[in-house]
Amino acid sequence: MPAADAPFLGPDETLHVLVPATEIGDAVEAVSPRVRAHRVDPDDGPPSGEAARAQVWVPRAGGARLPTNGFLEGLPRLRLVQLLSAGAERFVGRLPEGVLLCNARGAHTPSTAEWVLAATLAAQRGIPFFTREQDAGRWSFRTEHTLFGARVLVVGAGDIGRTVGRMLDPFGARVTYVARTAREGVRGTDELPRLLPDADVVVLVVPVTPETTGLVDAAFLAAMHDDALLVNAARGVVVRTDALLAELVAGRLRAALDVTDPEPLPPGHPLWSAPGLLLTPHVGGEIPGTVERGAAAVADQVRRILDGEPLVNLVGDY
To answer: Would you say 112 and 231 are in contact if contact means Cβ atoms under 8 Å apart?
Structure first.
């Protein structure tokens, strides 16, 4: 593989990009006549022909994994893996030397933050309960929770976390941001034991790292006050499923999850019937225009390569 600081292209050289979908191929080829897109399926093994000359690979969206069938070995000129997701945990530290990794930070920010707001509001106002009662034909009046004035702990102070905070602002929610490193306006994760007991809602929007895997364990959950709400829009492995199940079954905590561990959630898993849980199947970023936003992010990165500009959203070893 080439060195990390080697130029992507020589003068007038063609940029070959491996893409998972026609829409993305059309977007990158529209950037310049010097770009050629090749639609490939990594499950088919190493690419052949001109596709084997690719300098950029765009894995498929939705749970893309690193191929183990010689696919990367068949790309001697590969310089960049450009993801369509913000999550990069399946690729970090696993690419060949000299291959850069970029995510699609920002492409799914509005939709993911919107899911957090919708799920939090629905859980706070008891919408899942009232929907079940409607299906059963029961007029079941009861008082639920509120988002107005709620104390919300947003764990993850990146682009999505900040957008969540702005969306919560009109409700008068008192938002506290938490991240690995404390800075102005952001508390450090080492303060979580002191912050959790005061939080009415805890929102998880962190990347998967060794530090965040299993972050929400039995001790984390025990520190939350009775009837508090946990909202996970990060990844399922951030939460210890058994620990959360114990709190839900006991009726002490509530949760709204867009991600689970395991995922997809298999039939018969106890999370399906856990009380106090609102569950969606990893659809936080899925709204009309999702493919177009991903294609635009890839096309912008391709333009940067051709113009010799710095890449954006570079992912390092967390």
So the answer is: no
CA distances from 199 to 159, 212, 229 (A): 21, 19, 9
For residue 239, the number of C-alpha atoms closer than 13 Å in the C-beta half-sphere is 30
Tell me which residue of 189, 186, 154 sits closest to 169, measured CA to CA.
154
Give the length of the chain: 318
Count of Cβ atoms closer than 10 Å to residue 82 Cβ? 26
Q: Which of 162, 235, 240, 293 is catalytic?
A: 235
pLDDT means per 10 residues, the chain with 318 residues, are: 59 92 96 96 92 95 78 94 88 90 89 97 97 97 97 96 97 97 96 98 94 97 98 97 98 98 97 98 89 92 94 73
- Report in angstroms the alpha-carbon separations of 312 from 117, 149, 304, 305: 28, 37, 9, 10
Q: Which CATH superfamily, name and number, covers 15-107+289-307?
A: NAD(P)-binding Rossmann-like Domain (3.40.50.720)
- Distance from chain centroid for Cα 251: 28
Closest by CA position to 234, among listed 200, 261, 258? 258
Bridge partners of 50, per DSSP, are: none
Helix/strand number for the chain, H first, E second: 8, 12
- Of 114, 133, 263, 286, the catalytic one is 263
Amino acid symbol at 281: P
Residue spans per domain, the chain: 15-107+289-307, 109-279
Neighbours of 159 (CB within 10 A): 19
Pairing verdict, β 100-102 and 35-39: unpaired
Query: Active-site residue 235, yes or no?
Result: yes
Tokens of residue 109, six digits: 């920010």
Asked about 263 being catalytic, the answer comes back as yes
Q: Which fold has domain 109-279?
A: Rossmann fold (3.40.50)
Dihedral sign of CA atoms 212, 152, 205, 181 in order:
negative
Cα Rg, the chain, nearest whole Å: 22
Q: Do 15-107+289-307 and 109-279 agree at the fold level?
A: yes
